[in-house]
Write the structure tokens for this entry.
Amino acid sequence: MNSAWSRTVEVPSHDGAVHHWRVIDRPGTSDADPVILCLHGNPTWSYLWSRFISELNPKYRVIAPDHLSMGYSDHVASRTYKERVADIADLLRALQIDQPIWIVAQDWGGAIGMGYAVAHPDHVLGMVLSNTGIAVPSGRRAPLLIKISAAFGLHRLITQYTSLFVRGTPFLPGRGLTREQRQQLSKPYRKVFQRRAVADFVADVPFSEKHTSARDLQTVADALPSLEIPVRLIWGSKDPVFNDDFAYDLLSRFKNAHLHRIADGGHLTVLESSVAPLVEQAISETVFVEDQLSGVTSEALWSRIGTAHDANQICISDAAANETVTDAEFASRVASFATQLHSRGVSMGDRVALLIPPGIDLIAAVYACWRIGAVTVIADRGLGLRGLGHAVRSARVQYVLGIRTGCLAAKLLRWAPWALMINVESLRSTDGSTMSSLVMPAPSDNSEAAVLFTSGATGPAKGVRYTHRQLCAQRDALQNTYNITRNDRFVAAFAPFALYGPALGITTGLADMDVTSPSTLTAAALNDACERITATMVFASPAALANVLKTASGSLAALASVATVMSAGAPVPIETLRQIYQLCPHAQLHTPYGMTEALPVADISLLQREQVGEGRGVCVGHVVMNADVIISSYDSQTVSAMDMGETGEVLVRAPWLSDGYDALWFTQSLARADGWHRTGDVGHLDDENNLWIEGRVVHVVHTSFGDVTPVPLEIATEAIPGVERAAAVSVGEPGVQQVVIVVEVTSGEDGPANSALAAAVRLAVAPQAIAAVFTTKKLPVDIRHNSKIDRTALGHKLTHILTGASR
Amino acid sequence: MKVAVTGAGSLLMSSIANALIQRGDEAVCIQRRPVENLDCQQELVDIRDADALRRATVGCDAVIHGAARVGIMGSSGDFRSVNVDGTDNVITAAQHNNISRMVFVSTPSVSHTGTSLVGALADRAVTGRSHSHYAETKARAEQLVLAANCSSLSTVALRPHLVWGPGDTQLVGRIIERASQGKLVMVGSGNALVDSTYIDNAADAHIAALDALHLSAPCAGKAYVIANGEPRTVNELMRGMCDAAGIAFAPKHVPLAIATRLGTAIERMWPLIRKSEPPLTRFVAEQLGTAHWFDPRPAQMDLAWSPSVTIDEGFQRLRNWCEAKK
């Protein structure tokens, strides 16, 4: 950082003296933008903000002081919380900062910042708070580490007479700091006298109500709900001191607060991670009014349960467990689950993790939760144990509803240490409850219904929030898109849709398979599931269908008579559909396009796909009824529809678009613009209004002659005889990237393609210039769908090879 | 326009002269020995002779300076007298004769550091390195030329990267010769992605630079890397040349680290034993073993030039030429 920004300021203090403050004062290039005041905590100093300042847009002026007696500011007599808040006012007055500011603060700096905001509400435009607190969250104890450090007899030893506290802080769990960062942090605290204020700060943490600062902190805490300003919380969730509990405590205190949780971040997240983009987003964010649609009330998700004309109609047939329930039986199970859950205290808005294997109990539990207004947290077991744990932990569930092993895992692995465990077996009772006899109030349309976690291509899974209205809209969209009537019966071999049978009011069949591993579905198992309910529809993932084709033999009469086959979850090769058509000659074969955040967005049948023919990318058909799609530039934050035929990012709007991401405010800010969801897919709309997908935004190749999308090149390459699959990837830096094609040939080996194949590929993709053609036995694909190619990883590998580094 | 072209004995410079003549400009070719198939005034002058050079360039409007001592054979003094002092003579002659434009034919080796370049820009020429007299003296010459850029004389330096094509004895000739003797050596994996320049494109670029040069032109006083902008692996380039000549491509592989050391050793020892150019130098080893491709946009934007012959078309033309020669 530029040392010229560091200066000493003479500050006339409220205590009558004049103190010298060491301040980093980075001038901004624009006067129109707010000044940012950065407040560090204990035991750090303004160096804490070095990374933030170096990465922050130069237009902002930043002021980062060392608190008095800390860092390189004057050492003064011991100061209390209240005095420190007054000190900040003194400093700003001395600096003649009259215009309103943004406060960015961490640890004790957060408490001081909040104190300042409460005392000067008109002088603060907003706050970004990181790993801090104003009071111990209710029902929780004070952080153990601070308590030990403050304990009588140990306090001065840990915090002042030794450097344990100063040197230990950077080693708290998190993403970790570099050696240089750790050394810089402890630089002003090498001598015992320099650490006096460090000890004083710890001593100022009130553990009893009699403490001088207890009342002052409480006064500020009580005043927080009256603040109108936007507050954004950036939280390192590994912090053992200010853990997630503190984040949610603050979240509940402010009118306008959002949380962005960094799952692997620690106490010093502002130094560990790049937080400047988040702060810039917070400052520039126009207040996004969540689309609270009112008016027509949706038909509740559970309203069709127990309403079949024939009470003996099969509701769910589970071939795996060999269990079948009628409509009446299912209704009574949902009702008794709801009654039991309610009586055990599960109430409106509580989050419930469902650790129940797919089956009738899981579906009943989901509807029971929805009925009583509890929020279902559903994590796919395909995420693996780690992913599951991350999901349950990040959703902060109040209850874990599961089979014994599920509850045990949640307890042992501390996924939800504060949650109550409920064994789903214990909910079963014959209390005679019926859906109509349930007396507890039902949730409103705009209340949260579910948090879904699905595997991301990279990084931990994101929780996607849905309200009741959105889930109802999704049910209606499925019903409209696939013309589902109450006479339909469907076999669901596709996890999320299996839940929708009761909401649609149709019979559901579950095939004997491991739902988390779609390729375990055999043709015989699918046929058997269809036979049990004389299915009219089959929903399955492409991987499941591929295995059905592989295992198809003998008579598959039940399968042959279905009228609709729908395959979702990943792109479906047209050849797979053609072969499925041989098995189901009476069926319409549909492939919806969508994502966890919004499904369906578009739909296309096999017939339409054959008619459309070839084009730039994969045709996913027409946008479904009540959904909107526009193509907008992926280079720009602002949304504006591009012309027909132009390639850009696919943006979606629909009543069933999810509410947003859970505890990921920043991710959500980037993904949502003016009510549109940025899908991260690139594509275009053709003159017939068909949507074509050309790849992912992150996989676009930025060459010096313009941007190139991968999918059209891959399709052209895959038309070459002998080529199974191809990936178009980039090497080099954006702006001067080159396109390299990697061809999967089962008989081939990893290395440069022979000249005949290279020539064939270049001919196929002409006029696009291709720097090199490589072959591989197996392209890197995701385990779940066996279809999403990790082009980024492949590009890194090829960049390495093509620098001449290895063979 | 009357254009002085120095060093027309080389393929690139004679191609430039021919292209100038073809479009109706007048060319004055300045080199030590007469050149065949060059339909223009030829002045047989050594650029070390400042007076003769001044006389030869009287009445010219522009100069494209490509005369240079190349290779590794010779003392630093030999290289300096031609490449640095000779260039200084050209600049002086230009200033004396009121020539307003000067295009200097430089080389990417002036900023070569031995590491791979991936989509790089034309970095500043580096001087003060001893291991190659050629790169060192060309770098100093380029600095002289760019420093001479002023209101009366606009200058630009082009660094054509790996020029090849029909009639090229340096790259194509050597590869085909070695391959036909079964002595072709591949440094490293042969997977290094390198950009190259088809000869016609290289000639066009220099003429485009000449046209773009005027007072306060964006290119004045700057250096540009010239290349096709179509990097290929070294394997593919060499194979393409061998295929064009109808010779089997079966190189012997030498690891990059060994080739670099071998090249360094040969560079030191060779002049003591032989008079011809050595088969391998450290520079060649590094060039073949590491990626070299550049950002083509600065040259294309500032010089209003873009390559008209693609690499694959270039191979086809080379094939036609080889077949016609047989």
User: Anything to note?
Assistant: The first strand of chain B starts at residue 2 and ends at 6. Chain B has a mean pLDDT of 89.
